[in-house]
User: Fold these one by one.
Assistant:
Number 1:
Amino acid sequence: MGSITTNNVSSAGSLAGPADYIALLKPRVMSLVVFTALATIVVAPGGMHPVFAFAAILCIAIGAGAAGALNQWYDADIDAVMKRTSTRPVPSGRVTPQEALEFGAVLAFGSVFCMAFLVSYLAAALLAFTIGFYLFVYTMWLKRLTVQNIVIGGAAGALPPVIAWAAATGSISAPLPWLLFLIIFLWTPPHFWALALAGSDDYARANVPMLPVVKGPRATRNQILFYSLIVTPLAVAPYWLNLVGPIYGAVSAVAGIGFVALALVLWRSPQQAERTNALRLFAYSIFYLFAIFTALPVERLLGFAPGA
């Protein structure tokens, strides 16, 4: 971990309040993780007792928050020089690095232990792997090494549906959770590169080898379009394989058309409109993921899903 170069961080302690520790959890990222896991538990076969389902979702949420806190502990030097992240609790000095490390470590251990004790050893093992992958593989290694950082590292954010399926069924052999994993995995590059394209100066200043910094805007736009053209038909695949129902099929198809359309707009953007169109695609990509994962439990509850 590099040294923090802006704002003083007191070695004697911090002035952190509850809001600062909530910020360490990366609540916006956590909300996506929790929602995709919850949707998967609802559609998993056999049904899961509400108490155990709540425990599983809580453990996944805490595990995601732990990963976010550990990421902010290690990346404090990067966060300090980026406008988008300079006000985070550690680089701003409200939380010391040691406190962030201890907070994240306790949450990581607690989430895995509770998942194993209350729900499933398999789900706990997958949760531990996810936290470790995000910290050691993505944060400590890939992020500072390669333009493929977010492509490979995206596996961590894509695993919650698999963890949720394991919690609900005790198995990960079914195709649906792995298709959901692939959808999120292939959604992550265009989603994150759109944000990176809009904030490429930030990443350049922090010496992070994000695709727009290393390969330039044109290559980034090409890759965003390429991944959008892959993920949108893949997202419809669960319907064609009769794993989900027509509501999901319609939502994923229509939302996918919008995703590709905005990727095309960005691909064709003049330079002066690039940032605006990149941020528009970034915002839509979040809506897109929420839309298709909302369709899963909705059609299950309405009785349209296979086996409902």
Number 2:
Amino acid sequence: MKLEPKVLENAFVRLEPMAEAHREGLRAACNADQAVWTELYPFSWANEHFEPTWARLMGDQAAGTTQPYAVIAGGEVVGITTFYAIEPANAAVAVGGTYYRPDVRGGPVNPGAKRLMMGYAFEAGARRVVYHVDALNGRSRAAVLKLGAIQEGIMRQDRMTWTGRVRDTVVFSILADEWPAVRDRLDARLGAFA
């Protein structure tokens, strides 16, 4: 498996490797939903937390441990999604760290972005694409299942969030041999938005 940062695009969304040019657009998108950061994320991008979180992301990107993408829709940065836990030897990668501005949730942006990322990962030789979701995040759990992922289990008391809450993490995956059927269903779903 060899994943190189590159632009990914379809009719609904454009994913650009995260760069300084996306910084202020991402800041504005992240500040559009203040409550989500204290309720559902292990870290915060809002307000005074933006700069240290940006610095950590850029450091992880430079180290090659994360490939973050600016999510562009309608010519604007509307969020972020990443490849992380990249394991070339195991042909496995996680997709996550995803956030979207509230006004683009529930439409084609998330399935469009995930179609691009999973397609690229499997084309690059992935055997397994994984999603890790906070057990309290019902909306994201439903979205990942709707993508076609299989719930594998729940890692209890998996991590500490920035607020001090101990989170349980639900693990989902899609395997390479499942991808063609998942892809076809996802393409049909996206076709309904066209």
